[in-house]
Each structure stands twice: as C-alpha cells, then as structure tokens.
Amino acid sequence: MIEVRGLTIRYGRTRAVDDLTFTVRPGLVTGFLGPNGAGKSTTMRAVLGLESPDAGEALVDGRAYVSLRRPLRTMGALLDAGAVHGGRTARAHLGCLARSNGIGAGRVTGVLEQAGLAGVADRRISGFSLGMKQRLGIAAALLGDPPVLMFDEPLNGLDPEGIRWLRDLLRSLAGEGRTVLLSSHLMNEMALTADHVVVIGRGRLIADTAMNTLAGLFRGDVLVRTSDPERLTAVMRARGAEVVTEDDGALSVHDLDAAEIGVLALAEGIPLAELSPRGASLEEAFMRLTEDSTEYHSGGR
Ligand SMILES: Nc1ncnc2c1ncn2[C@@H]1O[C@H](COP(=O)(O)OP(=O)(O)OP(=O)(O)O)[C@@H](O)[C@H]1O
To answer: How high is the ipTM of this complex?
Structure first.
C-alpha cells in the first residue's frame, strides 16, 4: 500500500504538491493522472524519499521508503528510464542492483526474461532504445519481487506490442495482490489498464475514484443528424440545450437526452436520420475534470 497524507512540496513560490492525500490499495492497478506540471512526478519522488516534504508524508507499507532496510524487496519503482549507467550491460546493471539488495543472481535472469530482454542481456545499455530502457527499468523494479510497484510514464517509448505486454504485466501483478501505481498521458491505454484513478491538478486532489465511475461522472452528448439542422438547433437551444455543429454537419447536443430530442423533433415535424447517445470517454472526463487546473494551456496562456 502507498499512503500519501497531507503532502505539500514547494519549489520557491510554486506549490508543486499541495496538501495531497490519497491511498493506493493492493490488488488494483491505480492510474495517476494530471495535466503537465500537476505534481505527479514530484509526488512519486516523495514516495521514494527523493523530496523532503514541507508538510505531510508519503509511506510505503506504513514506513518511509528511506527507512526500509531492503527497499527493492518492498517497492520497485521506475521514475526515469534514461537515468541508467550506459556503459554497463543490462545483465551487469541488474546484477549490481541485485547484489546491493541481497537478491540472488538467478533472479536477474528471471526478470530479464520477464521483461523480454533475454536476447539483449549482454549488450551495453547505451545502445538501447527508449522502449528497451523502459523494459530494463521495469525489470529492475521487479527484481526484489516487491509487493508494491510504482512507474512514472512507463509507456513512453514502448511500441504497440510493448504497451500490450506492459498492460498484461501490470494487470497480472495486481491480480497477485500487489499494489500498482502508474502515471501516463495515454488516456485510452489508462482506460484499458487501470481499475482505479487518482487525478490531480496544480498539486491538489481532483478525483480518487474507480475507473468505471470516472467517465460516468459526466454525461456524454447525443449525436443528431437531420435534413433541417438550423431549425432543430433553434428548437433545442430554446429548450436550454448546448448544440455544436460537427465538421460533417452532425449536431452534438448536451443538456437534452435522446428521448427529449426525439419528442421535440416529432412535435416540430423535423425528420431525424440519426439519434445516438454517446458516453463521455475517459479523455473527455479528464479534460473536463482538469480544465480549471491546467498549468500549461495551448495558446500560451
Ligand atoms: N526541481 C524543481 N524545481 C523547481 N520547480 C519544479 C521542480 N520540479 C518540479 N517543479 C515544478 O513543480 C510542478 C510539478 O511538477 P511535476 O514534474 O511533479 O509535474 P508532473 O505532473 O509530473 O508533470 P508532467 O506530466 O509534465 O511530467 C511544476 O510546476 C514544475 O514546474
């Protein structure tokens, strides 16, 4: 379990993390989401004891990470896949980590295989692609067979096969009862991988909820096609609907449901060619949840 309690971290006048509290539970994959600069990496560094909080604490299985005697056996983490010694081979790198944590050499071969790196185990890391470095970082995190795993943007640089491999791995690790936390910008992938989501913006908690309920927090729209879009738009707006005309001429309608639109169109004698309720995607839910807390807007605001 990872517990973040009242965590506050300031850089000068910036509150990178602001009184943040959440718990990452075992047996689930928890997605950590937030716009650029929201404070995800800073929070994860604090969990690893790489930041000194101005207030609050971050605990791994009830203890500060730095106080763990064999940390790799309690939590495996990948923060920055590029931060490895390029001159070593993958096997030597993992061997070094294993020795310093009292882990047997046999485990090195095991995690190399698990990460799909057995064929390149004796090559220097400097020649690795970003995706291979991500796999190596994940192999290192798995080395101590830890009950808690935490990955910052582990999907970066992975090809579709790699993304699928990681999704299956994370789900099976959670299925074994481990605690799994990962951040990612890839919303569709997160929707497929995570059971639970913690969303932050400007260092503050915005949502801590089951993945299934996140998209459900927001009503989707209704897609309407008609031969008389101008009149139908006017009628729906008069009833308080928000109507946007899409590129192909279809109408995207909020604040009226499909049945209400059908009744209105019938009463006005306006023919309908399509009337389809659409659920909000995770991406839409995320954008709406975080629209007030994005630090970097496109358009340079
Ligand atoms: N070493 C630092 N010195 C000063 N400010 C920092 C430092 N590290 C982070 N920040 C600031 O703290 C805030 C949170 O940054 P952080 O990297 O934790 O966000 P993030 O959610 O991981 O973002 P991204 O998705 O872009 O990686 C940002 O405003 C960032 O500019």
So the answer is: 0.94
